Amino acid sequence: MLISEKDSGIKLPVIEKFYSIQGEGFHTGKAAYFIRIAGCDIGCNWCDTKFSWNNQSEWLVSVNEIVENAAKFPAKAVVITGGEPLSYNLDDLCENLKNNGISTFLETSGVYPLSGKWDWICLSPKKQNPPLSEIYNKADELKVIIQSSNDFLWAEENALLVKPESKLFLQPEWSRFSKIIDKVVEYVKANPKWNISIQAHKFMRIP
Predict the structure, then answer these.
(1) Are 53 and 39 in contact (CB under 8 A)?
(2) What domains sit in the chain, N to C, each tagged with a CATH number?
(3) For 52, what's the count of Cα atoms within 13 Å in the CB-facing half-sphere?
(4) What are phi and psi of 206, to 5 degrees?
(5) 2 sits in which H/E element
(6) H or E, element range at 131
(7) Tens-digit pLDDT profile for residues 126-144
């Protein structure tokens, strides 16, 4: 049942949903309703939402219910995150959100084909499982996690692939923030095409 519903996108495994403030990237500080889709096979060792890697049939929620809940909140903006949300067909979800006047924002590693129509796509590529080539020219924002100095080269490789108007962000990996932030600051000062993204929601201690 889970496979067929996954393929159709009529139901999606929602592991977390909450109304909060965007804490990362270009839209930091803006209110939005967040929907975390369960399931991820990328396996980043520093992932701060490892609880989202698994997938269980009891987490399935109908798109109608998801949209009905999202429409209750003042900010008509929904951020779809994960896990890896593009593991699922998101066409029906996006269509229903837009029919209700809600803007759609996607957070993805880009390893699966794009589905859904999005007002904003944040691509966060991972070395161990790089994005599909076709996602790069659709990314409005490139957000690269910096865990060590070696990651700056990975960031530059990906920056060459996105469209010229894409916003470029380097984000210190949270568990190494105090050890890496100075290097990120110096790198951005020397390469001002980049911006720094910090996980502001963690400093504010909000979801």
Answers:
(1) yes
(2) 2-204 (3.20.20.70)
(3) 23
(4) -125, 160
(5) helix 2-8
(6) none
(7) 998 999 999 999 999 999 9
